[in-house]
Every structure is written in C-alpha cells, then in structure tokens.
C-alpha cells in the first residue's frame, strides 16, 4: 500500500479497529488531523490484508453513490489479480450492489491502469451473484460486456447463466442464451444441449425440456445421456406415470439403458415407497450379470433404512465389499443419518471411526458432521464435533454454519449465535437468506421482536427477498404488539 495513502487512511483504520478514537472526530471544535496526538505508546495497526480491507471498504460505503466508492477504490493502490477480485466478490455473494460496483471498477481498471483483465472465473462469479439475486437487467449488461471480450465465456459461465435464468423460471430467455453460444465462440452441440435440459429439469420445467428434446431429434441426435436427463427430471418430480412412459420409450429406442438409467428408475421406485419393485430390479441386475454400482447400492441401503429395515441395510452394506462394490462416504452417511434418528449413537461413532480409518472416498464430509451436529443435545458438545471435523481436514461451508446457527438459536445460546455469526463473516461465508431467516424466526420465537426486526431490515437492505412465512410471522407479531400497546394505554 502506498505510504501517502496509508497516512490518509490511518485515522479511518483507527476508528475501525479502535472505536473509542472516533469520539475525537465528533468534537465540536474544528482541528486539523496532524494536530491530533496519538495516545501514549500507541502504534498504528498493521494494514489488514487486501481482501479484508476491500470488504470493509465496500461494507461501510454500500449505500454511497458508485462514483464515490470507485474514488475510494482508486486510492487503495492494490495490485489486482483474479484471486483478489474473486475473493472480494465471493464475500458479497448475497449483497449484489457492492459486488457489482467493485466488479465494474475492476473492469475499468484494466488494462491501461495495471494490466489486469478479468478472467472467466471473475465473470462467472458476478453472473452467479446477479442471477441469484434476480438482477437480470444488470446481468444483461454484464452479458453484453462479455460479448465484447474474447475467451471469458466458457462452459462453466454458460451453465451458470442457464441455471440462473431457468431458476427464475425465464425459460424462453434460457433457450435464447443457448442459441447465442456462437456469439461467444462456443459450439451448439449435444453436451451443451444436455446442460440446458438438465437445468430445465432441475427447476421442474420437465415438460418444456422433453418437448424441446423431442423437437431437436434431427438436429441433435439423442443419446442415452439425454434420455437420462429427461427420465431423471420426471423421477425428481415424483411423476412415476411419466417416468414409466419414458422408460418404455428408452427401451424402444436404439439407446441401451446404462447404470445411470437403472439407478434413476430404482431411486424413483424407492421414493414412491415401491421398495419391493426396487429390490426386484436390484437383485435382478446381479442375476443378469449387470453389476450394480455403489450409487445403486446406496439407494437400496437408504431405502431400507428409511423403512426401518436396518438389519437388511447392514447386510447389503456387508455384501457390497464381498461382491467388489466398495462403499463410499454416501453409503456411510445413509447409515449414520438413520442411526442418529433412532439414537444408536454407539454404532454411529463406530461407523465414523471406520470412515476415518478407510480414508479416501470414505473420509467423513460436511454432510457426515451435519448429522452428528443435528444429534447433539447441548451447546458444549458443538466444539467437540467441529474440532473433529477440522482434524480430519473437512472445511466448514454455509450449510454447516447455518446448522450451527440454528442449533444455538434453538438452545437460546446468544453467545454461540454471536460467535458463529462473526466467524461466518470473518471467514468469507456470506450471510445468506437462510442465515437471516434462522435469526429472525429464532428471535421472534424467544419474544425478541426488536432484534428480529433489526435483522429483517438488514436482510431487505441487502436485496434479499424474505420467505413468505417470515413476512407472515412478522406481520402477526406486529399486530399482537400493537394490541398489547393499545390495551396498556386503555
């Protein structure tokens, strides 16, 4: 950081890290900055890392005009890189406004200022942020910027674009983007078409996906992978009637069902409670010499556990290794999930120890520790699980953080809530709508209406749309509060 800039911002940093110093600047007497003397033995704090500094700069200026924020950014003097820009954007994943201001400034800063040119990784992040927050007008401007730059549109960015448009149920726009691929130097091929079909199905537009799929059979000849996408879509919707129809169409086509086709259909049967049919298909595969893979075995194990047929699930688990199908972390997680539900905790920790011993694909992951955390009874047990998680090299993610946040709220451990909230922000896990919803509902449940309203306003100010149940609950609490006030006055 340039020396002159450090001199200019040292008092801002003192205010940030030593709030008591701020009172000096609020005195009615006018004085020059150089006339203020430092406290005895006071040393200027070391400048924070660039990512943290930029995060704070954007945080405390989020409501300022963009031009003012850009002027402050111009004074920073940091050497821009993809890693720096990406990390700053990531820390604002649920707050699109400062993210966009910073992104636009980074684009302007290149290449005449320091040679930095944003890569596809940076463009993908801002596309994801704007799409997630449904800021499609701003996203269209970014897309227009991308069309003037070579090499920034790749398959990852394309998939993110399709995902966010379909996620907002803008089906026609998503199909339009698919046909704009050539503008960005990408081919219109079967793989890209499957990406479009996948996101359409993922967001429950399966009928649109199948209609589009069948209309393009001459232009893009179907393969089993494309059939599988549509079959999976109907199965995810739980529409076994349409799934059976498509299964028959696959058998009648020139495409031969693969393991994924069987896995999809077996899973659909188990989800509809047709475990007998699924088991017949499963055992039939062994008999026909078509060895099920670990995905299919996991589906059967999970279904048996769900039906509380745990001994049979453990038998399948045992037979997997004997027949050359090695279990993975998902196999263990299915057993652990259901063992936690029936409180067989000794068996749970035996399985976890076995996972740690096997390592590789069996090493416990965030899902494993989430089940363990969900089985806890009191706050003091949380650090034990988190320490074990860290010891095994499993990183925290937003799901685990939000789970811990919810547990502390349920236990009404406000110190735990505060620590978790601060750690999430400090470690760059953007506080999303789930985080705010957990706190709002928790505070309302405990009768802390003012705290709930404070977090609600903060969430809305960041452009997050509250869940309908949150608005209903707040409205109900406000009505009750007004009635109590009127009774007290009466």
Q: Would you kindly provide a written description of the structure presented here, covering whatever features stand out?
A:
- This protein is mostly helical.
- Among the domains are: 1-46, no CATH class; 48-122, no CATH class; 153-257, Alpha Horseshoe (Serine Threonine Protein Phosphatase 5, Tetratricopeptide repeat); 423-490.
- It has 26 helices and no strands.
- Helix 5 runs antiparallel to helix 6 (120-132) and helix 16 (294-306) runs parallel beside helix 18.
- The longest helix is centred in the C-terminal third of the chain and has 22 residues, at 468-489.
- Residues 464-490 are annotated as: Disordered.
- PPR repeats lie at residues 223-257, 258-292, 293-327, 328-358, 432-466.
- InterPro entries: PPR_P_subfamily, PPR_rpt, TPR-like_helical_dom_sf.
Q: Tell me the quaternary state.
A: single chain
C-alpha-based Rg, rounded: 28 Å
Q: Residue ranges: pLDDT <50 for 5 or more in a row?
A: 1-37
Please give the count of helices: 26
Biased composition (Basic and acidic residues): 481-490
Protein name: Pentatricopeptide repeat-containing protein
Keywords: Repeat
InterPro entries: PPR_P_subfamily, PPR_rpt, TPR-like_helical_dom_sf
Write the layout of secondary structure elements.
Elements: H1 3-17, H2 50-60, H3 66-74, H4 82-90, H5 96-108, H6 120-132, H7 136-147, H8 155-167, H9 171-178, H10 190-202, H11 206-215, H12 224-237, H13 240-252, H14 259-271, H15 275-287, H16 294-306, H17 310-322, H18 329-341, H19 345-358, H20 366-374, H21 382-391, H22 398-410, H23 414-426, H24 433-445, H25 449-461, H26 468-489
Helix pairs in contact: 2-4, 4-5, 4-6, 5-6, 6-7, 6-8, 8-9, 8-10, 9-10, 10-11, 10-12, 11-12, 12-13, 12-14, 14-15, 14-16, 15-16, 16-17, 16-18, 18-19, 18-20, 20-21, 20-22, 22-23, 22-24, 24-25, 24-26
């Amino acid at each position: 950081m340039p020396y002159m800039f450090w001199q200019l911002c040292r008092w801002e940093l003192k205010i940030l890290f030593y709030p008591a110093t701020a009172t000096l600047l609020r005195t009615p007497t006018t004085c020059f900055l150089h006339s203020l003397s430092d406290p005895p033995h006071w040393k200027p704090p070391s400048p924070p890392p660039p990512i943290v500094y930029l995060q704070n700069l954007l945080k405390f200026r989020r409501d300022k005009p963009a031009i003012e924020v850009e002027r402050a950014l111009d004074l920073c003097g940091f050497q821009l890189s993809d890693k720096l820009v990406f990390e700053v954007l990531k820390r604002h994943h649920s707050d699109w406004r400062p993210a966009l201001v910073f992104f636009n400034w980074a684009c302007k800063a290149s290449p005449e200022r320091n040679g930095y040119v944003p890569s596809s990784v940076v463009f993908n992040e801002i596309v994801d942020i704007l799409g997630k927050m449904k800021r499609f007008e701003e996203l269209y401007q970014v897309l227009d910027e991308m069309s003037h730059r070579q090499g920034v549109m790749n398959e990852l960015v394309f998939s993110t674009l399709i995902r966010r448009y379909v996620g907002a149920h803008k089906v026609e726009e998503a199909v339009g983007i698919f046909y704009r691929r050539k503008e960005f130097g990408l081919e219109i091929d079967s793989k890209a078409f499957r990406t479009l079909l996948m996101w359409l199905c993922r967001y429950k537009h399966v009928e649109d996906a199948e209609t589009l799929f069948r209309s393009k059979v001459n232009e893009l000849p179907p393969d089993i992978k494309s059939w599988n996408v549509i079959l999976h879509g109907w199965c995810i919707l739980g529409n076994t009637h349409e799934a059976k129809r498509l299964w028959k169409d696959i058998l009648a086509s020139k495409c031969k069902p693969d393991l994924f086709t069987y896995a999809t259909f077996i899973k659909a049967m188990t989800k509809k409670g047709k475990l007998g049919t699924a088991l017949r298909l499963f055992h039939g595969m062994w008999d026909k010499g078509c060895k099920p893979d670990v995905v299919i075995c996991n589906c059967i194990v999970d279904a048996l556990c769900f039906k509380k047929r745990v001994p049979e699930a453990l038998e399948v688990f045992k037979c997997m290794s004997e027949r050359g199908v090695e279990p993975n972390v998902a196999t263990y997680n299915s057993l652990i999930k259901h063992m936690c539900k029936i409180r067989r905790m000794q068996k749970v920790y035996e399985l976890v120890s076995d996972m740690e011993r096997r390592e590789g694909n069996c090493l416990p992951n965030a899902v494993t520790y989430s089940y363990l955390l969900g089985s806890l009874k009191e706050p003091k047990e949380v650090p034990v699980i988190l320490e074990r998680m860290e010891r095994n090299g499993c990183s925290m993610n937003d799901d685990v953080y939000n789970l811990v946040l919810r547990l502390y709220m349920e236990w009404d451990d406000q110190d735990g809530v505060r620590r978790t909230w601060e750690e999430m922000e400090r470690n760059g896990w953007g506080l999303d709508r789930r985080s705010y919803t957990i706190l709002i509902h928790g505070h309302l449940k405990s009768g802390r209406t003012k705290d709930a309203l404070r977090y609600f306003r903060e969430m809305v100010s960041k452009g997050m749309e509250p869940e309908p149940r949150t608005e209903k609950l707040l409205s109900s609490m406000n009505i009750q509060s007004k009635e109590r006030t009127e009774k007290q006055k009466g």
